[in-house]
């Protein structure tokens, strides 16, 4: 790859902090090494090393949207600070090309005593714009921030949402070559987030490089092309956003299972519920149960999805549907444990990775339990060891023309309300189908048909 195509290059990057137990140890570290070297002694270290980042390497092409995901404390913000130049690395190097606009921390670069207007000029000029350039773009900045008369008030009186509005409005008006966004948009309201994402997509279409950090997996999936997953300062995986997010969900699931397995002995001792113990024991000992899966799935095991198929109204296998056609989805399962409190569910995603719909047997059970509909409660059904069973999910096709992926999952639900969920088996790319439209018969635009009716 030509170096001209690379917007950001991170090579063997590491950031180390020295942790001292007391000020005395810090003073020792300052004075003693020189004396020890002078008298020929081995140099003693009076601190503990903490590597916030270690051995991180990746490249981002010009105009590419690149995501960074990981749990709190994994090193995401540290990495962004090093890339923006506000923090120096201990080892390795970072190379960037072009002007960087970074939205990292609320209020960074703002003087709390200055008004919003004064801070616009201060912030923009710190980012390399002249006063004349700020004058030309001030109306656009004020319109995008949309904070009204507060623009003339001191920033210290702003809410967190108003701060991020003003900061983002400035950053996107300086014509950056690289835009870095770290979680700050999460404090904005829904309308402002919509504007921000629309503006980000416009910048991407103009060839701006995006580094995007968020815990919102849907935003990362839809906004970015590739991503990196960090854990405790180390790189877990770099690849396509869908691959990285699957690994991220696996990581979250494993850590959650580990947490609950430590709690399980206390809970089961207190409750004495045999069936609950069976299911929770299966979750806590995921390494010993079947259902641990290939690269496209994860879970504690015990019950697994063996196949997902789509059928038409006649019960024939079908992968192409038109508006109004019935869709039947068969989820085949196999159990290695005896348990109840099970939920079989699916999630439908578009070709672009957008979640269109998610639903499961528990959704129907909740309606039955509240009296909203009649029928049996699947959640109460006892699944037997070595049992194979099918769950059929049916709906009418209301989806716009696209290619769709079905993800399938089996979960243990401690309560029939999704508040105590454990994934036993999750399977990405379990099945696919396509929707088309007969233009001469019926048509609509968008992702889904709202069955709109006109009157006059």
Q: How would you characterize this protein structure?
A:
- Strand 8 (226-231) and strand 9 form a beta hairpin.
- The protein has 2 domains: 3-244, 3-Layer(aba) Sandwich (Rossmann fold); 286-435, abc- transporter (atp binding component) like domain (Coagulation Factor XIII, Chain A, domain 1), CATH 2.70.50.60.
- Strands 5-6-7-3-8-9 form a 6-stranded mixed beta sheet, sandwiched between helices. Strands 10, 12, 14, 15, 17 and 18 form a 6-stranded mixed beta sheet that branches. A 3-stranded antiparallel beta sheet has the order 2-1-4, with helices on one face.
- It has helices spanning 23-38, 76-84, 116-126, 131-145, 160-171, 190-205, 217-223, 241-271, 274-284, 361-369, and strands at 6-19, 48-61, 65-69, 91-96, 100-103, 178-182, 209-213, 226-231, 234-240, 297-298, 303-311, 320-321, 326-335, 342-350, 355-360, 388-396, 402-413, 421-435.
- The chain starts with 5 loop residues before the first strand and ends in a 21-residue tail after the last strand.
- It has 456 residues and is an alpha/beta fold.
Summarize the amount of helix as a percent range. 25-40%
Number of domains: 2
Rg over CA atoms, rounded to whole Å, is 27 Å
The CATH topology of the largest domain is: Rossmann fold
Question: What is the CATH architecture descriptor of the largest domain?
Answer: 3-Layer(aba) Sandwich
Q: Average the pLDDT over all residues and give the rounded result.
A: 85
* Percent of residues in β-strands: 25-35%
CATH level 1 name of the largest domain:
Alpha Beta
Structural class: alpha/beta
Shape: globular
What kind of sheet is the major sheet? 6 strands, mixed
CATH superfamily of the largest domain: P-loop containing nucleotide triphosphate hydrolases
């Amino acid at each position: 790859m030509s170096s001209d195509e690379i917007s950001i290059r991170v090579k063997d990057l590491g950031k180390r902090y020295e942790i001292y137990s007391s000020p005395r140890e810090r003073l020792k570290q300052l004075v003693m090494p020189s004396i020890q070297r002078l008298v020929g002694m081995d140099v003693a270290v009076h601190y503990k090393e903490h590597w916030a980042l270690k051995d991180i390497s990746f490249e981002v092409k010009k105009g590419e949207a690149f995501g960074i995901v990981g749990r709190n404390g994994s090193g995401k913000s540290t990495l962004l600070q090093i890339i923006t130049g506000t923090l120096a690395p201990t080892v390795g190097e970072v190379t960037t090309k072009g002007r960087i606009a970074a939205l990292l921390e609320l209020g960074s670069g703002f003087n709390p005593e200055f008004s919003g207007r004064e801070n616009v000029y201060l912030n923009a000029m710190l980012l390399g714009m002249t006063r004349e350039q700020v004058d030309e773009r001030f109306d656009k900045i004020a319109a995008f921030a949309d904070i009204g008369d507060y623009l003339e008030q001191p920033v210290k009186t702003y809410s967190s949402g108003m701060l991020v509005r003003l900061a983002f409005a400035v950053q996107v008006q300086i014509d950056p070559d690289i835009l870095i966004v770290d979680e700050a948009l999460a404090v904005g309201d829904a309308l402002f987030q919509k504007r921000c994402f629309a503006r980000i997509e416009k910048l991407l279409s103009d060839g701006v490089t995006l580094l995007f950090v968020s815990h919102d997996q849907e935003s990362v999936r839809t906004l970015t092309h590739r991503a990196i997953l960090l854990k405790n300062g180390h790189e877990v995986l770099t690849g396509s956003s869908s691959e990285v997010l699957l690994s991220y969900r696996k990581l979250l699931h494993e850590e959650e299972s580990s947490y609950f397995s430590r709690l399980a002995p206390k809970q089961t001792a207190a409750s004495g519920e045999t069936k609950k113990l069976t299911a929770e024991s299966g979750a806590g000992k995921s390494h010993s149960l079947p259902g641990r899966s290939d690269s496209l799935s994860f879970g504690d095991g015990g019950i697994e999805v063996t196949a997902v198929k789509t059928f038409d109204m006649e019960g024939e296998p079908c992968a192409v549907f038109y508006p109004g056609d019935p869709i039947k989805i068969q989820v085949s399962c196999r159990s290695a444990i005896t348990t109840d409190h099970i939920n079989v569910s699916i999630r439908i995603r578009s070709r672009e990775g957008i979640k269109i719909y998610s639903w499961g047997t528990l959704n129907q059970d909740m309606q039955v339990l509240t009296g909203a509909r009649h029928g049996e409660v699947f959640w109460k059904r006892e699944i037997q060891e070595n049992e194979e069973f099918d769950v059929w999910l049916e709906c009418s096709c209301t989806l716009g023309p696209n290619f769709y992926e079905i993800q399938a999952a089996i979960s243990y639900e401690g309560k029939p309300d999704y508040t105590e969920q454990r994934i036993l088996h999750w399977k990405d790319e379990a099945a696919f189908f396509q929707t088309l439209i007969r233009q001469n018969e019926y048509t609509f635009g968008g992702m889904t048909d709202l069955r709109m009716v006109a009157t006059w």
